[in-house]
Each structure stands twice: as C-alpha cells, then as structure tokens.
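> call design_seq(struct)
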C-alpha cells in the first residue's frame, strides 16, 4: 500500500510507534496508523502538522472519560523536551479482538467508549469471560511489570463498538515510575482495584445458582459500567448472545429470562438493545453486583 508523502512528517507504518514532526518539535503516537494521520490524506490536500497536533491534543484533553481515567495525568502531558504524550485512538468493532502482549512492544489500553470483555481459555479451548472493561477501565498494566512473554491465552473482545486510547507500555511504565512515592502506588492501586472489582463481579455472576439471577447480575453490572458516561440513559447496546456468554448460559435460556424480565416491566428489549428500567434495580438492588464501585482519580467511587 502506498501513502502520499507528508512534508515534515515521519511515519512508521504497522505496529511500531510513529512520530509527527512539526517546527522542530514532535508528538509521539503509539500503536498503528492513527485517525489523526489518516485525516491528513483526505480530500482537499494535506493537513498541516501543527493543526493535526493541536486537534489530537484537544481531543485528548476533552476526552469523555478524562475526569475518571487513572492515566489522565500522562495523557496530553507536555514533556521536558517539548513533546506531547498522546495516545493513538483506535476503533474497536463488534467481536474484534485486541491483545496487549502480541505486539513488538506491549500495549496499555484505556477504554474511551464502548465495552470490552476480557476472555481467557480453559479446558478444551473453551472461552470464558474474565472481566468487563467499560469506559475509563485500563488494560495491560500487569503485562508491563512482568517479564515479556507473548501469549494468546487471554485477550479482549469488543462487545459494544467503541474506541481505545492506545499507549506504549514502556512509556506508561516510565511515566508512572517517575511519579515517585506514594503517587505511583496510588495510580497502580486504583487500576488494580478496578480490574479486580470487575473480575469479582464476573465471579459473582457465575456463583448465582439460578438463571434469572445470573442474567440480572449481568444487566446490573452493565448498567453500572455505562452509568459512568454522562449521556447514559439506561440503554445497554448488547445482544442476547452476549448476555448469555457473560452469564455462562445457553442462548435460549438467557433469552427466556430476558423476555420474562421484559414481561414484568423490569427491562425493555429491542434489536441489539436492552433498556434497564428503574424497576430492575428496585427489585434486585440487594445483589452485590448492584453496588460495585469504580474508583476515579481522587479515590471517589464514580459509580456504586
């Protein structure tokens, strides 16, 4: 594939990082080809590198999850040599797979929009859900603190199409380590606690003995995850198949329970859409899954 030449821009295609150079300064993007770069090849000629830098930085500073993102302290940060540290914003489609450790350099992802599920393999190649990663969740931090081993036994899959902020793992680690004590430990604690809480929620779903409770558990977890977004209205854009997978049920069983909940007026059903109504939380608010917290930058629970 051929790309138009860009004056003052150095691009390394594929998985390596690439830099955009402008007036003696450069901005570091990590990951594959960014939409910011792709926009420069649109109709009407090339975008000025300085405009591209400003637009990407503006987008990072006005990220919808910035207020509760544990890595907000480094995103769009101006470094001592004049660079701005920005992520590559990647689109993730439905059932698209994402790895943190199958690239030349390990990746760290922040869910900007949408929903990812962390899958892992068990016996006989069976896939099971391990945790949900909703807006503000960070994936890939454990990988950068252990010896590098490329693996394919766990990965992330898009359940709701959205966007990821893609950072180079070594850059993230160096920025966290530079915070010193106790700030670095606090950042890692927030990320780890949020991840552990999500895994705990999945364990609670599996632990319920009845199919009805498993389905309700999934819906309450999804509602809490999306409630962190300011524009959430109770509509969860997810299919029956995905609810069944998260609940550990057959598709027919999950659909039967969803239809029963809809008949009772606790949820609304549509095409690849489930409307979580107030009655569901009123009826099942006693479940632990209804109050699992997500910790923001100041240790306040964003959702509970």
């Amino acid at each position: 594939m051929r790309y138009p030449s860009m004056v003052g821009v150095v691009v390394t295609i594929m998985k390596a990082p690439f830099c955009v150079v402008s007036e003696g300064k450069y901005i570091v993007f990590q990951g594959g080809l960014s939409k910011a770069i792709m926009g420069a090849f649109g109709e009407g000629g090339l975008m000025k590198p300085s405009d591209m830098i400003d637009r990407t930085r503006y987008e990072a500073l006005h990220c919808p999850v910035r207020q509760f993102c544990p890595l907000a302290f480094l995103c769009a940060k101006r470094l001592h040599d004049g660079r701005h540290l920005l992520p590559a914003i990647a689109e993730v489609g439905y059932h698209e797979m994402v790895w943190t450790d199958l690239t030349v350099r390990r990746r760290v992802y922040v869910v900007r929009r949408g929903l990812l599920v962390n899958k892992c393999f068990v016996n006989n190649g069976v896939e099971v859900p391990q945790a949900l990663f909703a807006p503000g969740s960070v994936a890939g931090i454990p990988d950068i603190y252990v010896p590098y081993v490329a693996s394919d036994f766990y990965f992330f899959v898009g359940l709701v199409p959205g966007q990821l902020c893609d950072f180079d793992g070594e850059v993230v680690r160096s920025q966290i380590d530079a915070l010193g004590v106790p700030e670095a430990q606090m950042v890692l604690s927030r990320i780890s606690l949020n991840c552990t809480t999500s895994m705990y929620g999945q364990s609670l779903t599996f632990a319920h003995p009845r199919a009805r409770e498993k389905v309700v558990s999934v819906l309450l977890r999804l509602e809490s995850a999306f409630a962190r977004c300011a524009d959430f209205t109770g509509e969860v854009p997810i299919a029956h198949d995905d609810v069944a997978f998260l609940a550990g049920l057959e598709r027919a069983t999950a659909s039967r329970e969803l239809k029963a909940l809809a008949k009772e007026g606790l949820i609304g059903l549509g095409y690849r859409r489930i409307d979580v109504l107030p009655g569901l939380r009123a009826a099942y608010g006693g479940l632990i899954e209804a109050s699992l917290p997500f910790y923001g930058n100041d240790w306040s629970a964003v959702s509970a």
